[in-house]
Specification:
heterodimer, A: about 475 residues, mainly alpha, MetI-like fold, two-stranded antiparallel ribbon, 18 helices, about 75% helix, extended, B: about 300 residues, 2 domains, flat
Chain lengths: ~475, ~300
C-alpha cells in the first residue's frame, strides 16, 4: 500500500524543530555516555564495588552497561531524526518509566514523613509535606511530562512501514502468549519448590511415618528428646474442623440459596445478596478476632472441665460463616440454572411451590449444589489465620474431654495450615522440610477436592 | 353408590392432602426465611461488633503514630497503613500487566492460534488449566512458595518485594477471569469495524477493545485490592512483620491485617486490634461499593439504559 506523500512531506515547522532538537539532545547524551565509558576504563577505581551487594559490580560491568545504553540512545536519536515511529515509542516508554519512578519515590518520601509515627504529626505539617511532595514531583516531571505530551501530539507525522507493523503485531502476540502461560508456570514453580524443600524429609523421615505418626515434636523446641514428625493429629484436626463447618454451614447456605433464588421478594434479595458478598470480603483475621473475643467466652459457658472456649467448636463456627458466601453463591447459580419448564410442569400438575422446590428443583440442581459444598470444603481446608487464632493450636491428638464423645469438639487441635503458619518462621533443617511436606499434603488434598468440584460442574454444563 | 362414596372420600383425602402440603409449605418458607435472616444476622453481628468496639479507639493520634512494638500493644497503626498501601500498589503493578495480557491472549488470540498449530493449542489448554488450579490454591501455599522461592532461594529476604510477588500470584487468577469476562462482552462488530479500516490486530485491541472493556478490568483490579488488603497468611510468612516504616521495597513491613493478627495473638491488646480491624472493614465496604458503582455503569453502557 503506497502512502500518499503529500500528507507527510508537509510537516509544520514546530514538529520539525521539536524532532530535530530531541534527536540532537539524545545524540549528545549518547556521546556523553561513551565519553563516560572511556573515562571509566581509564580510572577503574572511580566506582567502589561494595562487597555485600547482590551482584559484584565492577567498573567493567558499569562500562559495558554505559556503552550499551549509549548505543541504544544513539539508535533512538537516529530514528527520531528520520521520523520513525518505533523510536518515538521507545522514547515514550522511557519517559513514562521515568515519571512513574519519580512518582513512587515521592510517595515513599512523603508518606515516610507523615506516617513515620515517632510522635503525633499536626495537620498543618501534613498538608505542608503533601504540598512539598507535589512541588518536587512537578519539578522533576515537568519537562518529561511536556515531552510526552508533545510526542503524543505529533504522532501522525511519524511513520511506520507495514513490515514494522506486522513485526510488532507478531511480537505482541508472542509476548501475550508468555503472559497467558504465567499461571501454569506459577503452578509448576509452586510444585517444584515445595517438593524440593519437602524432599529431604520424605527421604529421611519417610512418608508413612509422617502421615501415620501421632506425635509432632520438632527437635528445635525440646532439645534432648528425639524429634518426631507425625502429622496425623493435624490431619484429624483439619478434617474435624472442616466437618464441623460443613455440618453447621452447609444447611444454612443451601437454605439461603433457596431463599435467594426462589422465595425472597426482590427487595429483600437485593439487600441480602450484597451482605453475603461482603462476608466473602471480610479479612480472615477479623473472623479470628471475633472468634477470640466473642465466641470463646460464649463457648466457655458450657460447663465442662478443661473447656477453654478455644478449640474445634469455635473453629467450626467461624469456618461455617466463612464458607457461607462460597456455597450460597454457587448453589444459587445451580438452582437458577434449572430450566423453567421443570418448575412450570410441576406447578401445572398441582404441586405446591415447596413441593416443586424439594422434589423437582433441588434434585435437578443436585450436582451443582454438591459442587458448591465441595468448593466450600476446599475453602475451609485452606483457611489459615482465623484457624490459628481460635483453634488453640495444641499438637496433641484431639480427644473427648469426658465420657460424652461430643466434647471432642470442645478440645483444642491444630490444622495442617496452622501447623505451617505457626512454625515456619523459625523452623530449620528437618523441621522446615517436614513443614513443607505438610504444605505438599495440603496442596494435594485441595487439588483433589477442587478437581472433584470442577468435574461435577462440567458434567452439569454438558448434560 | 359405592363409586360416589369413593369419590367423596378421595375428594376429602385430596383436601386433607392439600391442607397438609400447604402447612408443609409454610414451614418450608419459614425455614428458608430463617436461613436467610441468620446469614445476614451473622454479617451484621460481626461487622457491627467490630465497628462498635473499634471506632471508639480511633483518633488522629492512633492513625498517625506507629506501633510501639514489643508485647505492650501500645501505639497507633500509621506504618501499617503505609505498608498496606505499598503492598497494594506493588502487587497490582506486578499482577495487572500479566493478568490483563493473559486475558487478552485467551480471548482474542487463543481461538485462531489453537486451530493453526497443535503446540499452541496445547499451551492454551495448559494456560487455562493453570488459571483453574491457581484459583483454588489456598493462600498459605502461596506463602510457602514465596518463602521458598523469593525469601530463601532468591535471597530477597522478608521484604515488600517478596511479599508482593507472592501476593501477585494470589490475585492473578482473579484478574484474568474478570478481564476475560470484560473482553468477551465487547461486541464483535467493534473489532470488525476497526479491522476493516485497515488497523492491525494489536492496534484494534489496544485502541478499541481495551478501552471498551476497561470498567470490567477495573472491577477485577478493585476486587484484587480487596483480597490483598484482607490477605494475612501470605504476608505472615513473607513480609516479616517489622513495625517500622519500610524505607524501600527491600525492607520488611507489617500490613494492617497482619497487625490485627499480631496484636490479637501476641499482645492481647484487643481494643487496638478491633480498631485496626474496623479500618480494614471500612476499606472493604468502600471497595465493594466502588465495584457496585463501576459494574452498574458498565451495564448502563452496554444496554444503553439508565
Amino acid at each position: 500500500m503506497e502512502r500518499s506523500p503529500s500528507k507527510h512531506n508537509k510537516k509544520p515547522l514546530y514538529v520539525g524543530i521539536i524532532t530535530k532538537m530531541l534527536s540532537v539532545i539524545l545524540g549528545l547524551a549518547a556521546m556523553a555516555g561513551l565519553a563516560f565509558a572511556v573515562f571509566l576504563f581509564m580510572n577503574p577505581n572511580f566506582i567502589e564495588s561494595s562487597g555485600d551487594s547482590l551482584f559484584q559490580l565492577t567498573h567493567l560491568y558499569y562500562g559495558i552497561g554505559v556503552i550499551i545504553a549509549s548505543g541504544l540512545l544513539a539508535l533512538v536519536a537516529k530514528g527520531i531524526w528520520q521520523y520513525k515511529n518505533w523510536a518515538r515509542t521507545i522514547l515514550l516508554i522511557g519517559l513514562l518509566v521515568f515519571i512513574i519512578y519519580y512518582f513512587i519515590v515521592i510517595v515513599f518520601t512523603v508518606s515516610s514523613y507523615i506516617f513515620a509515627g515517632e510522635s503525633l504529626v499536626p495537620v498543618v505539617s501534613i498538608c505542608k509535606a503533601l504540598g512539598q511532595g507535589l512541588l518536587f514531583f512537578l519539578e522533576y516531571t515537568f519537562l518529561p511530562g511536556l515531552l510526552v505530551f508533545a510526542l503524543m501530539k505529533i504522532n501522525q507525522y511519524y511513520e511506520e512501514s507495514p513490515q514494522q507493523r506486522d513485526f510488532i503485531d507478531n511480537a505482541v502476540r508472542y509476548l501475550l502468549l508468555g503472559t497467558a502461560l504465567s499461571c501454569i508456570i506459577i503452578v509448576f514453580l509452586i510444585f517444584l519448590f515445595t517438593m524440593t524443600e519437602a524432599w529431604s524429609s520424605i527421604e529421611e523421615i519417610g512418608m508413612d511415618t509422617m502421615l501415620l505418626g501421632t506425635i509432632w515434636r520438632p527437635g528445635s523446641i525440646i532439645g534432648t528428646e528425639e524429634a518426631q514428625f507425625g502429622l496425623l493429629p493435624m490431619i484429624v484436626g483439619s478434617i474435624l474442623s472442616t466437618f464441623g463447618a460443613v455440618v453447621i454451614g452447609v444447611p444454612l447456605s443451601i437454605g439461603t440459596a433457596i431463599f435467594l433464588a426462589e422465595v425472597a421478594p426482590r427487595a429483600v434479595r437485593e439487600t441480602i445478596r450484597p451482605a453475603v458478598e461482603l462476608l466473602a470480603g471480610i479479612p480472615s483475621v477479623v473472623y479470628g478476632l471475633f472468634g477470640m473475643v466473642v465466641l470463646a467466652p460464649l463457648i466457655r459457658h458450657i460447663d465442662i472441665p478443661r473447656n477453654t472456649g478455644f478449640g474445634l467448636l469455635n473453629a467450626s463456627i467461624i469456618l461455617a460463616v466463612m464458607i457461607i458466601p462460597t456455597v450460597t453463591n454457587i448453589a444459587e447459580d445451580a438452582i437458577r440454572a434449572v430450566p423453567r419448564e421443570y418448575k412450570e410442569g410441576s406447578m401445572a400438575l398441582g404441586g405446591t411451590h415447596w413441593q416443586t422446590i424439594v422434589r423437582v428443583i433441588l434434585p435437578s440442581a443436585r450436582s451443582g449444589i454438591i459442587a458448591a459444598v465441595i468448593l466450600g470444603i476446599g475453602r475451609a481446608l485452606g483457611e489459615t489465620m482465623a484457624m490459628i487464632m481460635v483453634i488453640g493450636n495444641s499438637i496433641a491428638m484431639p480427644k473427648p474431654l469426658n465420657n460424652n464423645p461430643l466434647t471432642l469438639f470442645l478440645n483444642t487441635a491444630r490444622t495442617l495450615t496452622g501447623n505451617i503458619a505457626v512454625e515456619i518462621n523459625y523452623a530449620a533443617g528437618e523441621h522446615r522440610s517436614a513443614l513443607f511436606f505438610t504444605g505438599v499434603l495440603l496442596f494435594i488434598m485441595i487439588m483433589l477436592v477442587n478437581s472433584a468440584a470442577r468435574f461435577l460442574m462440567r458434567s452439569r454444563q454438558e448434560s | 353408590m359405592t363409586s360416589e362414596v369413593e369419590s367423596i372420600i378421595s375428594r376429602a383425602k385430596n383436601k386433607r392432602n392439600l391442607r397438609r402440603q400447604n402447612t408443609i409449605q409454610v414451614f418450608g418458607y419459614i425455614l428458608v426465611w430463617v436461613c436467610g435472616i441468620l446469614a445476614v444476622a451473622a454479617v451484621f453481628w460481626i461487622i457491627g461488633y467490630v465497628l462498635s468496639q473499634g471506632l471508639q479507639v480511633i483518633d488522629l493520634e492512633f492513625l498517625t503514630t506507629r506501633p510501639a512494638g514489643g508485647v505492650s500493644g501500645e501505639g497507633g497503626m500509621s506504618t501499617t497503613i503505609v505498608t498496606t498501601l505499598y503492598l497494594v500498589v506493588l502487587t497490582i503493578a506486578i499482577a495487572t500487566p500479566l493478568g490483563v495480557g493473559a486475558a487478552i491472549y485467551l480471548v482474542e488470540y487463543a481461538g485462531d492460534a489453537s486451530r493453526e498449530s497443535k503446540v499452541v493449542a496445547f499451551l492454551v489448554k495448559a494456560a487455562r488449566t493453570g488459571v483453574e488450579i491457581l484459583a483454588g490454591v489456598p493462600s498459605i501455599i502461596f506463602g510457602l512458595f514465596g518463602f521458598a522461592l523469593f525469601v530463601s532461594y532468591l535471597k530477597l529476604g522478608f521484604s515488600l518485594l517478596s511479599a508482593s510477588l507472592s501476593g501477585a500470584a494470589l490475585i492473578l487468577p482473579t484478574i484474568i477471569r474478570t478481564s476475560e469476562e470484560a473482553l468477551i462482552t465487547v461486541p464483535l462488530s467493534y473489532r470488525e469495524g476497526s479491522l476493516s479500516l485497515g488497523a492491525t490486530k494489536w492496534y484494534t485491541i489496544f485502541n478499541v477493545v481495551l478501552p471498551t472493556a476497561m470498567p470490567g478490568i477495573v472491577t477485577g483490579m478493585v476486587l484484587s485490592i480487596g483480597r490483598i488488603i484482607a490477605e494475612t497468611a501470605i504476608f505472615w510468612v513473607t513480609l516479616g512483620g517489622s513495625y517500622h516504616l519500610p524505607k524501600s521495597i527491600m525492607n520488611s513491613g507489617r500490613s494492617m491485617a497482619l497487625h490485627v493478627y499480631m496484636l490479637a495473638s501476641e499482645t492481647r491488646a484487643f481494643d487496638k486490634a478491633m480498631a485496626t480491624a474496623s479500618i480494614l472493614i471500612i476499606a472493604i465496604i468502600f471497595l465493594n461499593l466502588t465495584i457496585n458503582i463501576v459494574s452498574r455503569r458498565l451495564t448502563t453502557r452496554v444496554t444503553g439504559k439508565k
